[in-house]
Design the sequence.
C-alpha cells in the first residue's frame, strides 16, 4: 500500500495532459492547473462542517459561505480569463488501473465547465447567503449547511469531470445530497418519502447513465471524454465500434439525463422535492442539479451532432423535451402551493432546454440554462421570502403582499417577467434563441421522423408554452401580491440577508440576457463554444441575427398570457373556489392529478414490487427452496435412523436413537454429543468416497 | 528479514491466532481481562504482520511470493505450500483487520451465555482458518483451512445465537433459531464441501497426481482429464464454492445463520467467510479448469444476476433488519460472481474489490444491527422508527453505511458494482456478448432495487418520530468500543472509494497474469 501511495504522489506531481486542443486554445496557466480546488474544497469543507461546524461562531455557515465565496470568485476569474483568451484543457491524475484502462480523477477547464463553475459559484453564493436568514433557528442548522456544501461539491465534481467515472461519482453525490436535503425535515414521513422518490427516480434513470457510459467508454477503450471526442472527430468510418454503439449508448445517456433534468415521464420527483427547505429548491431544483442532464448532453454534444454517431437520438430528445415543456407547464396552472407552481415551471423550462439540445442548438439550450438559473433561483428565493413571512406555502393564504414586502415583490416581478420572456430581460433572449432553433431544426429530420413538420410542430408547442408560462406566472403574481391578504400571520419584509441576494439575482435576471443578443453580442456563444473539438462551432446551430418575426410572435404569446391572466385572476376574490372560476371541465381533474402518472408509478410499479412480488420471492425462499433443504435434511435423518436400526438390530435401540435425535432442546453442545452432526458428516463423506471411486473408475 | 519473506511471516500471520487460542486455554476462566488482552494481542500481532507483508510485498511482480513449500503428507504428495499474490493480499489483510475489530467490539458486548474465554478461542480458531484459506496453495491444505472455519462458526451460532422460537415452514417444526440455523449452516456447507473434496480428489487422480494448485494449473490438469470428466469436476467445485459464496439457489442457509448468529459471528461471516467461496473460484477453478470455466460462465452469470434481483426483492419483504442485511449480502455477492463470470481482468478485479468492499461495509452493517438490537431488544424495523433522534451518532453511521452498501460512487461499494457491469459489456472471448450485455442491463436494474430497500430501511429505522413504546427510555449512543471498531471501517470505506488503487494497485497485475495464463493472450 505504501508503494501505491507514493505511486499516486508521483502521479499527482506529473499531471498528464488530456485531449489535444484542436483550435488555438490556451491551457489556462496557473488558474486552470489549480482548478482542482473547485471540486475539492467544498468536499473537504462538507466534512469539516460536520465535525467542527457547531464550534464555529456561525455554526458552520461561516465555513460554507467562505467556500461558496471562493467558488464564485474562482468561477468569475476563470470566466474572465476565458473571455480574454479561450481555455480548453483537461487535467487527469491516474488513481488506479483496471485491466489496461486507467481510472482517473481530474478536472476539466473549458468553456462549458467554466460556464457551470460560474453559475454554481455565483448563484450558489447568493443562495447560501440567503439560506442563513431562512434557516435561522432550524433544528439542524449545521447539518443543513454540511449537506448543502456537499451538494455544491458534488455538482462541481460532476461539471469538472473529464471522464465518465468522475461524472458518475459527481452525479450520484448530487443525488445523495438531494436525498439528504429534500428529507431535511425527516420527522414527517411525507418528507422522507419525497426524498426517496427523488433518489429512486434518479436511480432508474441512472441505469441509462451506467449503461450508456459503459457502452461509450468500452467502445472507445477509455473513460476520458477527450478520447471519446477524439474518436468522433475522426468520423464514423474511423471509429466503427463507437459508431456501432453510439445510438444505443447515446440513447441510454439521454435516459440518464432525463432523470436529473426531470424530463417527462421521469419528472415526477421534482415537484415532490419541494418538501425540502426553499433555498434547496432554489439551488438544486432550479439552478444547478436539474441542469446536470442538460449539461451531460452538452458535454457529449458532438456525439449527438456528428452524423453516423448518435445524431438520430436528437429526434427522441426534441420530442421528449417538447412533451415536457408543454405538459408540465399546464400543471403549473392548477397549483395552489407557490413552490409547486415554480417546480412545474422549472420542469417546463427544462423541457425548453432539452428540446433545444434535440434541435442541435447547443448554445441556445445552454444559454437558457444560464439565464434560467438566475431568474428561477430568484423566484424560488422570493417565494421563500413570502413563505417565511406568512408561514404557509399556499397562495390561498397570501394576497396583498405587494405593500408589505416591496423588495420581494419587485424582484419577484422582475423574475416572473424574465421567465415569461419579456423584452429586454434575460428570458426573452434565451427563449427567442430556442424558438429560432426549432425552425432551423425541422429541416434536419428525415421524412420518417416528421421532417420539417416536426420542427414546425415543436415550434408551435414552444410558442404555446410561452403563452402558458406567462399565464401561470401572472396568476402567481396576482394571487400572491395583489388583492387582500387572506392569511392569519403578520407578514413583514424579510431581513436584509434575504433581500440582498434577491436583488443580486434580479440584476442577473434582468441583464444577463444582453451578453448574447443575436448578431450583436456573442459572449455566451464564444464562451460555451470554447471546446477542444475541431470545428465545434460548425456543429451546432445558433442564430446569427434576431429573428424579428419569432421575437414578435413569442412576445405576443407572452403578452396574451399576461393579459388573460390578469383578466381572470386580477379581480380579488375571497376563496379558492371563487378564484378558480376559470376551470375547464375534463381538463382540470387530469391536471390536478398530474395526468395520473404518479398514481400509475405508485400503484402500477412500486406497490406491486414492494408488496406481492417481494412477498412472493420471500415465500418461495421459505416454502420452496427451504422445503428442499429441510426436506433433504429430514430425509437424511430418517435414513440415519434406518441405518442405525439395522446396526443395532433391536427395537429398543431404535426407540432410543429416535429419542436422542428428536430431543433437540438441550443445547448445541449436546447436539454434537448425541452424534447427530457426526452422523451426517460420516454419511456425506462415505458418499463422497464412493462417488470419487466411481468417477475415477468410470473415466 | 529473509526469514520473514521466506514463508515465516505468512505462517505467523496464519498461526498466531491459533497459538493465541492455545494460550487462552491456559488462562483461568475468571480472568476475563487477561483473556481479552491475550486475544487482542495475538490478533493485533497477526494484523501488524500482515501489514509488514504489504511492505515486503513486491508490487512489480505478478506471481506468488513471500511463501514456502514444505513436505507435509508425502504419501499423497500434499505439501505445506503457502504464498500470496496481489489477489490474496487484500483479502488476507481484510481478514486480519476485521478480526481485530471484532475483538475490540467484543470487549464490552458479550452475547449470552457470556463465557468470553470460549468465545475468544473460537474467534481465534476462526481467524486461523480464514487467514489460512487465503494463503494455501495446496488443495488439501486449502480444504483443511476451509473446513476449520466451519466448527467455530457452528458453535458461535449454536451456543451464543438467538434463542427465539421459530417454526419452519411446511414441516411445522418449532425449534430455537440458533439450533436450526447452526445445523443448517453446518450441514449445508458440509454438503458443498463434500462435492468440493470430490472435485479435489478427482483433480489429484486425473490431473497429474498432485494437490499443488500451481502445478495443477501448469500441468494443464484439465487437458489430462478430457472435457467430459472436467465438466463434472468443475460441477463439483462449483457446488462447493457456490454454497459458500452463497449463490442463488444455494443461499438459504445464509439468512438464517446471519439472523441467528451473535453480532461478531454475523460480522465475521459476512466480512470474511463469504469471501472464501468467491476467492476459491478465482484461485482454484479458473486457473486449473479454464476451459470449463468458460463453459460454465454463462450459467454462473445467469445465477449471479438472478441472485441480485431475487435477493433485492426478498430484502423488500423483510421486517427484520438483520435478515434484510443478510439477504443484501446475497445480492452483493451476485455482483462479485457476475464479475468473475465474465472471465476478464476487469471482471475479476471488480470481484476482488467487491469482496473487500462488501467485507468492510456489510461487516459494519452487521455491527450496527447488532448494537441496535442490543439496545432495543428487537430487530423489527417497524418498532425502530426515529432512531436518528434517540441515537444520532448511531443513526448517522447507519445512514452512511447504508449509502455505501447501495453502491454510492465515491465510496468503496461502487467500484465492485460498476466494474462488474462494465466487464459484462465485453466478456472473455468465446462468451456470448448478447447474454452478458443482457445481464449487464438486468444487473444495473438491480442497483435500483438495492437503492430502494436500503433507503426504505433507513426510512423505517432512522426517520420519523420515535415510537411511543420508547418514551422514557434512556438510550446510550455509540460507546467507545463501538467507535474504536467502527471508525476504521468508515475510514476504509471512504479511502477505497476515493482511491480504489488501494485494492486495484495490488490486484491488477496478478489478475491480468492469471487471466492471460488461463485463457492465453
Sequence:
Amino acid at each position: 500500500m505504501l508503494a501505491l501511495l507514493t505511486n499516486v504522489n508521483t502521479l499527482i506531481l506529473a499531471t498528464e495532459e488530456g485531449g489535444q486542443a484542436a483550435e488555438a486554445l490556451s491551457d489556462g496557466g496557473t488558474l486552470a492547473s489549480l482548478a482542482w480546488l473547485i471540486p475539492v474544497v467544498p468536499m473537504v469543507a462538507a466534512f469539516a462542517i460536520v465535525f467542527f461546524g457547531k464550534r464555529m461562531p456561525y455554526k458552520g455557515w461561516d465555513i460554507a459561505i467562505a467556500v461558496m465565496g471562493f467558488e464564485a470568485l474562482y468561477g468569475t476569474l476563470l470566466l474572465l480569463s476565458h473571455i480574454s483568451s479561450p481555455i480548453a484543457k483537461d487535467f487527469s491524475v491516474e488513481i488506479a488501473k483496471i485491466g489496461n484502462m486507467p481510472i482517473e480523477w481530474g478536472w476539466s477547464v473549458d468553456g462549458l465547465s467554466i460556464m457551470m463553475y460560474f453559475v454554481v459559484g455565483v448563484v450558489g453564493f447568493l443562495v447560501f447567503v440567503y439560506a442563513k436568514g431562512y434557516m435561522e433557528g432550524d433544528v439542524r442548522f449545521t447539518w443543513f449547511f454540511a449537506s448543502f456544501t456537499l451538494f455544491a461539491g458534488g455538482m462541481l465534481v460532476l461539471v469538472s469531470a473529464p471522464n465518465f467515472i468522475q461524472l458518475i461519482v459527481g452525479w450520484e453525490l448530487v443525488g445523495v445530497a438531494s436525498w439528504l436535503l429534500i428529507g431535511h425535515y425527516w420527522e414527517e414521513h411525507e418528507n422522507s418519502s419525497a426524498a426517496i422518490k427523488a433518489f429512486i427516480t434518479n436511480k432508474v434513470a441512472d441505469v441509462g447513465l451506467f449503461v450508456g457510459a459503459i457502452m461509450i467508454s468500452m467502445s472507445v477503450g477509455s473513460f476520458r471524454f477527450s478520447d471519446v471526442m477524439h474518436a468522433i472527430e475522426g468520423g464514423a468510418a474511423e471509429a466503427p465500434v463507437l459508431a456501432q454503439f453510439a445510438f444505443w449508448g447515446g440513447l441510454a445517456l439521454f435516459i440518464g439525463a432525463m432523470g436529473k433534468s426531470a424530463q417527462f415521464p421521469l419528472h415526477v420527483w421534482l415537484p415532490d422535492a419541494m418538501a425540502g427547505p426553499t433555498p434547496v429548491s432554489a439551488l438544486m431544483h432550479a439552478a444547478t442539479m436539474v441542469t446536470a442532464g442538460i449539461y451531460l448532453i452538452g458535454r457529449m454534444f458532438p456525439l449527438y451532432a456528428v452524423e453516423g454517431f448518435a445524431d438520430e437520438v436528437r429526434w427522441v430528445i426534441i420530442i421528449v423535451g417538447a412533451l415536457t415543456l408543454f405538459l408540465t407547464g399546464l400543471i403549473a396552472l392548477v397549483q395552489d402551493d407557490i413552490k409547486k407552481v415554480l417546480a412545474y415551471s422549472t420542469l417546463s423550462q427544462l423541457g425548453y432546454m432539452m428540446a433545444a439540445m434535440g434541435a442541435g442548438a447547443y448554445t441556445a439550450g445552454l444559454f437558457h440554462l444560464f439565464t434560467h438559473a438566475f431568474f428561477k433561483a430568484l423566484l424560488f428565493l422570493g417565494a421563500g421570502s413570502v413563505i417565511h413571512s406568512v408561514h404557509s406555502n399556499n397562495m390561498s393564504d397570501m394576497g396583498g403582499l405587494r405593500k408589505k414586502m416591496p423588495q420581494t415583490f419587485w424582484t419577484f416581478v422582475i423574475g416572473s417577467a424574465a421567465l415569461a420572456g419579456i423584452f429586454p430581460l434575460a428570458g426573452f433572449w434565451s427563449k427567442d434563441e430556442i424558438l429560432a432553433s426549432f425552425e432551423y431544426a425541422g429541416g434536419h429530420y428525415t421524412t420518417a421522423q416528421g421532417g420539417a413538420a416536426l420542427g414546425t410542430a415543436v415550434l408551435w408547442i414552444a410558442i404555446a408554452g410561452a403563452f402558458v408560462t406567462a399565464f401561470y406566472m401572472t396568476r402567481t403574481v396576482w394571487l400572491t401580491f395583489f388583492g387582500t391578504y387572506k392569511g392569519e400571520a403578520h407578514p413583514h419584509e424579510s431581513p436584509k440577508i434575504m433581500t440582498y441576494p434577491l436583488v443580486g439575482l434580479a440584476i442577473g435576471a434582468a441583464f444577463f440576457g444582453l451578453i448574447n443578443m443575436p448578431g450583436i453580442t456573442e459572449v455566451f456563444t464564444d464562451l460555451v463554444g470554447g471546446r477542444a473539438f475541431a470545428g465545434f462551432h460548425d456543429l451546432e446551430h445558433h442564430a446569427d441575427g434576431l429573428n424579428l418575426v419569432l421575437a414578435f410572435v413569442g412576445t405576443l404569446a407572452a403578452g396574451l398570457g399576461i393579459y388573460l391572466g390578469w383578466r381572470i385572476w386580477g379581480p380579488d376574490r375571497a376563496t379558492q373556489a371563487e378564484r378558480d372560476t376559470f376551470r375547464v371541465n375534463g381538463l382540470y381533474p387530469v391536471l390536478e392529478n398530474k395526468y395520473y402518472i404518479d398514481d400509475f408509478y405508485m400503484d402500477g410499479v412500486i406497490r406491486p414490487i414492494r408488496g406481492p412480488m417481494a412477498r412472493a420471492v420471500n415465500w418461495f425462499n421459505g416454502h420452496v427452496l427451504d422445503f428442499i433443504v429441510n426436506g433433504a435434511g429430514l430425509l437424511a435423518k430418517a435414513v440415519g435412523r434406518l441405518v442405525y436400526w439395522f446396526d443395532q438390530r433391536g427395537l429398543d435401540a431404535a426407540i432410543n436413537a429416535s429419542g436422542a435425535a428428536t430431543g433437540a432442546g438441550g443445547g448445541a453442545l449436546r447436539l454434537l454429543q448425541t452424534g447427530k452432526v457426526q452422523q451426517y458428516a460420516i454419511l456425506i463423506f462415505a458418499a463422497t468416497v464412493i462417488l470419487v471411486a466411481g468417477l475415477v473408475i468410470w473415466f | 528479514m529473509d526469514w520473514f519473506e521466506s514463508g515465516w511471516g505468512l505462517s505467523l500471520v496464519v498461526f498466531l491466532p491459533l497459538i493465541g487460542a492455545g494460550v487462552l486455554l491456559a488462562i483461568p476462566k475468571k480472568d476475563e481481562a487477561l483473556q481479552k488482552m491475550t486475544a487482542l494481542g495475538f490478533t493485533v500481532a497477526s494484523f501488524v504482520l500482515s501489514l509488514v507483508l504489504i511492505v515486503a510485498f513486491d508490487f512489480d511482480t505478478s506471481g506468488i511470493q513471500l511463501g514456502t513449500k514444505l513436505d507435509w503428507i508425502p504419501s499423497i504428495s500434499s505439501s505445506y505450500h503457502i504464498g500470496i499474490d496481489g489477489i490474496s493480499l487484500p483479502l488476507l489483510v481484510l481478514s486480519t483487520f476485521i478480526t481485530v475489530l471484532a475483538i475490540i467490539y467484543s470487549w464490552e458486548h458479550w452475547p449470552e451465555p457470556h463465557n468470553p474465554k470460549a468465545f475468544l478461542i473460537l474467534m481465534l480458531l476462526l481467524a486461523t482458518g480464514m487467514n489460512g484459506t487465503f494463503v494455501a496453495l495446496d488443495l488439501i491444505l486449502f480444504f483443511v483451512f476451509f473446513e476449520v472455519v466451519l466448527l467455530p462458526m457452528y458453535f458461535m451460532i449454536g451456543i451464543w445465537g438467538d434463542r427465539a422460537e421459530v417454526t419452519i415452514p411446511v414441516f411445522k417444526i418449532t425449534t430455537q433459531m440458533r439450533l436450526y440455523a447452526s445445523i443448517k449452516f453446518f450441514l449445508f456447507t458440509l454438503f458443498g464441501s463434500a462435492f468440493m473434496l470430490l472435485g479435489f480428489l478427482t483433480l489429484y487422480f486425473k490431473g497429474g497426481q498432485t494437490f499443488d494448485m500451481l502445478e495443477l494449473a501448469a500441468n494443464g490438469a484439465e487437458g489430462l482429464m478430457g472435457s467430459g470428466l472436467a465438466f463434472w469436476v468443475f460441477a463439483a467445485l462449483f457446488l462447493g464454492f457456490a454454497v459458500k459464496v452463497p449463490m442463488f439457489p444455494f443461499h438459504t442457509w445464509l439468512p438464517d445463520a446471519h439472523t441467528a448468529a451473535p453480532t461478531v459471528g454475523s460480522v465475521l461471516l459476512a466480512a470474511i467467510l463469504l469471501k472464501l467461496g468467491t476467492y476459491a473460484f478465482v484461485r482454484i477453478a479458473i486457473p486449473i479448469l479454464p476451459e470449463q470455466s468458460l463453459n460454465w460462465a454463462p450459467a454462473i452469470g445467469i445465477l449471479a444476476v438472478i441472485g441480485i434481483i431475487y435477493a433485492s426483492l426478498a430484502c423488500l419483504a423483510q421486517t427484520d433488519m438483520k435478515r434484510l442485511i443478510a439477504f443484501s449480502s446475497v445480492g452483493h455477492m451476485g455482483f462479485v460472481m457476475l464479475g468473475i463470470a465474465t472471465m476478464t481482468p476487469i471482471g475479476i478485479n471488480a470481484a476482488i474489490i467487491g469482496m473487500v468492499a462488501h467485507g468492510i461495509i456489510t461487516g459494519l452493517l452487521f455491527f450496527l444491527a447488532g448494537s441496535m438490537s442490543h439496545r432495543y431488544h428487537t430487530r423489527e424495523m417497524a418498532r425502530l422508527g426515529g432512531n436518528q433522534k434517540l441515537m444520532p451518532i448511531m443513526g448517522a453511521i447507519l445512514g452512511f453505511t447504508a449509502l455505501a452498501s447501495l453502491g454510492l460512487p465515491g465510496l468503496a461499494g461502487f467500484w465492485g458494482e460498476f466494474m462488474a457491469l462494465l466487464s459484462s459489456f465485453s466478456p472473455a472471448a468465446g462468451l456470448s456478448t448478447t447474454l452478458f450485455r443482457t445481464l449487464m442491463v438486468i444487473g444495473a436494474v438491480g442497483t435500483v432495487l438495492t437503492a430502494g430497500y436500503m433507503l426504505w430501511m433507513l426510512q423505517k429505522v432512522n426517520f420519523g418520530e420515535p415510537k411511543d413504546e420508547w418514551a422514557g427510555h434512556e438510550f446510550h449512543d455509540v460507546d467507545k468500543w463501538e467507535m474504536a471498531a467502527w471508525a476504521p471501517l468508515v475510514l476504509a470505506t471512504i479511502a477505497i472509494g476515493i482511491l480504489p488503487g488501494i485494492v486495484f494497485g495490488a490486484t491488477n497485475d496478478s489478475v491480468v497474469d492469471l487471466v492471460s495464463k488461463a485463457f492465453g493472450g
Observations:
- Residues 597-648 of chain A form the longest helix (52 residues).
- Chain A is about 70% helix and 5% strand.
